[in-house]
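Predict structure. Chain length: 244.
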Amino acid sequence: MKEKNAKHHFGKPAGFDHKIITRRIDLVKQVEGFCGKNLALVDVGCGNGASLFQLANEMKTCLGLEIYEGHKIHFENYKTKKQIQNCDFLLFDIENQKLEQQFDRLISFEVIEHLRDDKNVKHFYGLLKKGGLAAITVPNKWWIFETHGANLPLLPWNRVPFFSYLPKPIHEKFAKARIYTKERIKTLLESVGFEVLKIDYVTAPLDVLKEGKLKDFLTKNIFNTETTETPFLATSIFVLARKN
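Prediction complete.
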C-alpha cells in the first residue's frame, strides 16, 4: 500500500473457525488485566466480527469499527445467531472521521498495513483512555509468503515466496499492503505516543494449507506453538502497547 494517495484494499477477513483468530485471541487473553467485565473494548477494522465476538463474554461492551459496509451483514447475522447483546458495529473511516468516545481496551488485527498512511495509527491512540491497552497485529516481513499478495507483472500468482524480503521501496511499489519488522512497528507505535510493552512473532497457523498428512506433520512438529523466536515461521507480529 503506497503511503500517499493509496486506496483502501479490503482484505478478506478470516473465517470464524480459522486458527489465526483463536491464536490471536489466546494471546490477548494471556495478558493479565486485558479483559474485564467492567471494560469497554473497541476493535478497529473488525471485519465480520470474528475476533470481537470471541472476547464479548469477557468484556462489558464491544464496538467494532469497520470501513467496508459489506462486512456488516455477516457481523449482524452472527450476533443474532449467537444472541450476543453487548457488541455493536459502526461503519467508520478512522483516518477521516472522529469518534469522541474512548475505550479501556483496543484490538486491531492486520489493519494498520491497509491504512492510507500508517502514521494515522495516532487515531488508535486517541480512541484509548489514559492507561488503556492495545493488542495489535501486523504482517511479518520475514514470513516466507507475501501475506496480502502483490500486483506483479507477468505473474498470475500474487503470493510469490520471499517477495516480502525485498527492500521496502520495491516491495511497496507492488504489494497490496505494507509489511513490518518488529523494529518498524515498534518505532511507528512509539512515534504516536504508545509504550510498547511486549512484541512477539505469531506462529503461522497454516489455515490455508489443505487438511492432510503434510499439515498434520507441520502443525504437530514445527508450527506447534502460539509464538516463535524464529522469524520465518511467523505470519504476523503481535504487539501489546499502552497509552500512558
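Summary: The CA atoms of residues 81 and 189 lie 37 Å apart.
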